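Appendix C reproduces, verbatim, an entry submitted by the partner laboratory led by Prof. M.T., so that reviewers can inspect both the input and the predicted structure.
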Amino acid sequence: MTENVKVEMDNTRRDLSVLLLMLFILFCPSKANSQEKYPSLSVHQNDLKIVFHYCDSKIKPSDDVMYYWMKYRVVHTTEGGYAGQLLHGDYQEYFISGQLKTSGTFKKGAKEGQWKIWYENGKTEGIFLWKKGLLDGKFMTYYEDGKIKERGKYRNNTKHGVVAQFDKLGNMTKLRYRNGNRVDREAKKESRLKAKKVKEEKRNQNKIIELSETKEDSIGDKEKTKRPRRTKENKSQEPDTNSEEVSNWVRFKEWVQGIFKSKDKQIEND
């Protein structure tokens, strides 16, 4: 008796599980089915083939979010606004060769979730996480040969925390960010060197200004003390310091000549 009850209970649980699964499939459409109500479009733009979905929803845009929208079969991007039908759903870009370039999802014009970018050779270029149109979460970028280039984390569209950078040989450099600003020792050292350089340049500029002012003052003093060049006009205007001596000599000469003339007259009379 007990075994029969147990078997019946197991059968009932199995039937309920099957019923719940069927209800879930019927009333919870898949992602593909949910996008069927949004029209899709395929266009060629900027040497790329773009396949996307769009909607007629109206939203209040945020000032710091880049919105993607479509008008006259052309995809536009505008920060803090839109003027057409917002992209909504899956989005893909293809190279002319047919190779996939970009894949991601839009939610009412803003990027959402994981986005992936490829080089034309098929190697991954970068993987990013988006939240309401802003970079938010872990990211990784790669060189064209597939080697890692950079990895870290974004918060509110800016790098935050430790970011590891790699050169093409695989050598790693760790940088620390806080809300997009570097705060590691190397950054502080660079900031101090930059401030010192600016200070030295300002000091050198002040020295140049002082030297130029001193040179101008010395030139002005020389021009004041320098005697003007003598010209014919200046000579005619200058007072003749020997004019009195010349007049005395003329009078003396006339007096001597007068004496000789008077003697000559006496001789003639005699």
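Residues 1 and 7 are 10 Å apart (CA to CA). Additional entries are available on request from the coordinating office.
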